[in-house]
Amino acid sequence: MIEIKHIDKTPENGRFVLLDDGKEIGEMTYTYAGSDKAVFDHTFVHPDYRGGNKAALLMDRAMAWVREKGLSIFPLCPYVDRMIRVFPDKYGDLPLAEFEINELTGELQPCNVPSDNPKNEK
Asked: What is the pLDDT of residue 118?
């Protein structure tokens, strides 16, 4: 039986774990960027379980959680980014966070400028 568990690993990050009869077969990870943003950075499904939309199950559960929490997201993971773009009817309501690269550290940091993205207006 396939199930998905949400694990908040630390106050800074967490993951959604895809299980098949208790065996971990996939995951989608994120890191918090402040209290209202989540950076989704990785999606993996074990090669033996690929196909059959297993990653899409992770995506649906993770994005339902984003909606429940009222978060905006930054889809750093190519899979998450692609799913948002390919399925706007399903994920187009999700507010996207904007980030910039810190010139001193080379790390992503949230932008503090207003967005012209209409999805981010409340």
From this structure: 46
